[in-house]
Amino acid sequence: MIIIDFNCTHRSNQLITILNYSTVIGSSPKIAEKSIKNKSYSLKMSVEFVSSNLWTPQYSDYQMFLFQTIIDYLQKGWTYEKIADQFNKNKYLTPRGKKFKANHVWSIHFKKQKSIARFSREYQPAITDMKVDVILG
């Protein structure tokens, strides 16, 4: 979780173009011009970002090859047992150097799918404690 505080000030005699959303729908130009003279404004807000993309697990090329191969075989309708037999027939070893069993194939598939789901989540930023102060000067 990252929390960023923005604290911006604006003096009324400076020209600033605002490109963001505003809820002000209309105002008399003469009243607005008189009311902002010799004033400054302070905008303070907290923005909270939550992201699952700040850390990514490191999978070796071999682990990614095994996972992709498992996915390909599962899409063809193969069982975990049949995939393990195929890996052993082709002399592939588990990432820890052992012969494949069905539970190894299942574990690689299940854990990577869980990881993909975890790191694909998206969160909306939350703006809190928004405050505009008018400073008379």
Brief summary of the model shown:
This protein is of the alpha+beta class and 137 residues long. It has four helices and three strands, in the order E-H-E-H-H-H-E.
For the largest sheet, list the strands in their spatial order.
Answer: 1-2-3
Kindly state the percentage of residues in helix: 25-40%
Spatial separation of the terminal alpha carbons: 38 Å
Secondary structural class: alpha+beta
How many separate structural domains? 2
Which word captures the global form? rod-shaped
Low-confidence stretches: 1-22
Mean pLDDT, as a whole number?
Answer: 74
Instruction: Please summarize the sheet with the most strands.
Output: 3 strands, antiparallel
Could you give the order of the helices and strands? Answer: EHEHHHE
- Rg measurement, Å: 29 Å
Count of helix runs: 4
Strand content: 15-25%
Number of strands: 3
